[in-house]
């Protein structure tokens, strides 16, 4: 996983762990259950070599991402809100979306990223 950097980003009162590699334009890679950001290692390396900035966050409740104790804090809208907050903190307005988990994320993120 050479060259991949890690950091925690605070948004909407929680900390999100992200792995990053490369330069713009941005590709956001989202894992599903029971994966982690590292499930995208091959894709991150490949995309970065082809000129993309790749960000792969751990999702809410996974690994080094905050885990709110209330189960009601794990709805699809919370997860989409986390990703929108992440994009805001990254200072990015345009994203190429490669999603692994639920087509609903694609539709919600697409409509919010065109603001």
UniProtKB/TrEMBL annotation:
Domain of life according to the entry: Eukaryota
Coiled coil: none
Keywords annotated in UniProt: Hydrolase
Keyword hit for Hydrolase: yes
AB hydrolase-1 domain segment(s): 25-96
Transmembrane helix listed as a keyword: no
Membrane-spanning segments: none
Molecular function terms, GO-annotated: hydrolase activity
Protein family membership: Belongs to the AB hydrolase superfamily. Epoxide hydrolase family.
Descriptive protein name: AB hydrolase-1 domain-containing protein
């Amino acid at each position: 996983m050479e060259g991949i950097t890690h950091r925690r980003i605070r948004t909407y009162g929680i900390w999100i762990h992200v792995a990053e590699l490369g330069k713009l334009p941005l590709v956001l890679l989202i894992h599903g259950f029971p994966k982690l950001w590292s499930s995208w290692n091959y894709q991150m390396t490949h995309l970065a070599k082809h000129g993309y900035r790749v960000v792969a966050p751990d999702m809410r409740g996974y690994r080094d991402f905050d885990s709110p104790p209330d189960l009601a804090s794990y709805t699809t809208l919370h997860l989409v809100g986390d990703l929108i907050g992440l994009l805001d903190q990254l200072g990015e307005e345009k994203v190429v979306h490669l999603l692994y988990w639920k087509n609903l994320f694609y539709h919600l993120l697409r409509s919010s990223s065109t603001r």
